C-alpha cells in the first residue's frame, strides 16, 4: 500500500512539474504612430509607398500576423512573419489602420494588439478624418439601462486637419442603422432610449469642413433584462 501511495505521489508531482503551454501576449505597436501622418518609407511610384511596420516582441510568441487595412476600401493586406517588423506597400494620400496578432504553434490562443490609424502622406492636403473610435458600448457587449431607460453611446474622433465639424449618429434595431442625430464636433456622446432584452445597432459618421467623411463601421449591443 505504501508503495502504491508513493508511486501515486510521484506521478502527481511529475505531472505538475511539466511546463504548461503559455498563451502569447499582445504586441506593443511602434510605427507608424497612432493618428499620425506617415512620411517615412520608400517611394515605389507616384501613387505607392513601401512602409516598414514595427512593433515590440511579445512574450510566448513564435510568429506575428500583421494586418494593414485601407480605410477607404476596407481592403486588408495580411503579412505573416517571425520578425518584429514587416514591409507593406500602401497607397499615398490614404488613411489606414494596422494591428498585429501574436501566435504560438503550441497554443490555440492568440493575442491581438491595439489597432492604430495613420495617414500615408500624399499630395492631397485635405485629409479624410479617421473613423471614430467606439468606446462604449463596445460591440457585442451586454449593458444595463439607467433609471431613464437610456444607454449612453460614447466615441472619440481624430483628424490630421483638426477640422471635424460634426458627427452623425446612426442607431436602430436593424443591422443597417438609420440616422438618429447630427452632433457638433465637440460632442462625442449621446443618450438613447432602449428596451430590455433587445439588441441595438449603431455607427458614427465623422464629417470634416471639406465634406470628407468616414464611418466607424456598425457595432451592436444588447440591453440586459
UniProtKB/TrEMBL annotation:
SUPFAM superfamilies xref list: Fibronectin type III
Superkingdom per UniProt: Bacteria
Signal sequence, renumbered to the chain: none
Ranges where the Fibronectin type-III domain occurs: 137-225
PROSITE patterns the record matches: FN3, PROKAR_LIPOPROTEIN
Name used for this protein in its record: Fibronectin type-III domain-containing protein
Organism from which the protein derives: Cellulophaga baltica
Organism classification: Bacteria, Pseudomonadati, Bacteroidota, Flavobacteriia, Flavobacteriales
Amino acid at each position: 500500500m505504501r508503495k502504491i501511495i508513493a508511486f501515486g505521489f510521484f506521478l502527481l508531482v511529475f505531472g505538475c512539474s511539466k511546463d504548461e503551454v503559455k498563451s502569447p501576449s499582445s504586441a506593443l505597436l511602434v510605427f507608424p504612430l497612432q493618428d499620425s501622418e506617415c512620411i517615412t518609407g520608400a517611394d515605389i511610384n507616384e501613387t505607392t509607398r513601401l512602409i516598414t511596420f514595427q512593433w515590440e516582441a511579445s512574450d510566448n510568441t513564435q510568429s506575428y500576423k500583421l494586418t494593414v487595412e485601407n480605410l477607404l476600401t476596407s481592403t486588408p493586406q495580411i503579412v505573416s512573419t517571425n520578425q518584429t517588423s514587416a514591409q507593406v506597400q500602401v497607397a499615398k494620400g490614404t488613411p489606414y489602420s494596422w494591428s498585429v496578432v501574436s501566435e504560438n504553434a503550441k497554443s490555440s490562443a492568440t493575442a491581438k494588439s491595439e489597432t492604430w490609424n495613420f495617414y500615408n502622406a500624399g499630395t492631397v492636403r485635405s485629409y479624410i478624418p479617421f473613423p471614430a473610435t467606439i468606446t462604449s458600448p463596445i460591440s457585442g457587449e451586454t449593458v444595463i439601462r439607467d433609471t431613464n431607460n437610456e444607454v449612453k453611446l460614447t466615441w472619440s474622433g481624430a483628424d490630421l486637419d483638426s477640422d471635424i465639424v460634426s458627427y452623425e449618429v446612426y442607431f436602430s434595431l436593424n443591422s443597417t442603422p438609420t440616422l438618429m442625430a447630427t452632433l457638433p464636433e465637440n460632442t462625442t456622446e449621446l443618450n438613447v432610449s432602449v428596451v430590455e432584452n433587445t439588441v441595438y445597432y449603431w455607427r458614427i459618421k465623422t464629417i470634416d469642413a471639406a465634406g470628407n467623411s468616414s464611418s466607424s463601421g456598425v457595432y451592436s449591443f444588447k440591453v440586459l433584462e
